[in-house]
From TrEMBL:
Protein name, UniProt field: Aminotransferase-like plant mobile domain-containing protein
Annotated Aminotransferase-like plant mobile domain residues: 42-100
Pfam family name, one: PMD
GO terms of biological process kind: meristem maintenance
InterPro entries listed in its UniProt record: AminoTfrase-like_pln_mobile, MAIN-like
């Protein structure tokens, strides 16, 4: 089984949709395909809804954040994408002098926790 066939089989198993060869580069699936995945998945029965719930979205966000942070270290990088709220919250917890001092503590309830 080639690397593309393995990717195709795993995506069919996990998502019910397989990427095309143009959506892959070597043994990697392009992020663009995953971003459009939510529009292509039809959640019309309990089986598909349970498949979505089973994914480890926190791990995926963290992996994407680390990848984005690595890309921003390049000289030619002009912007960054990813779950920047996680990065800001981490910075507020680890470096409290960066955190804003709100006059109303209910302004940032999740980040303050």
């Amino acid at each position: 089984m080639s690397s593309f066939e393995a990717l195709e089989a795993e995506c069919l198993h996990q998502f019910g949709i397989a990427p095309r060869k143009t959506d892959c580069r070597g043994s990697f699936i392009k992020l663009k395909w995953f971003r459009g995945l939510k529009d292509r998945i039809v959640l019309n029965d309990d089986v598909h809804m349970q498949m979505i719930i089973q994914f480890s979205w926190g791990s995926a966000c963290l992996a994407h954040l680390y990848r984005s942070l690595c890309r921003t270290t390049r000289v030619d990088c002009k912007e960054m994408d990813g779950p920047l709220t996680l990065l800001v919250t981490w910075a507020w917890i680890r470096l409290p002098f960066l955190a804003p001092i709100p006059s109303n503590p209910r302004v940032f309830p999740i980040a303050n926790r």
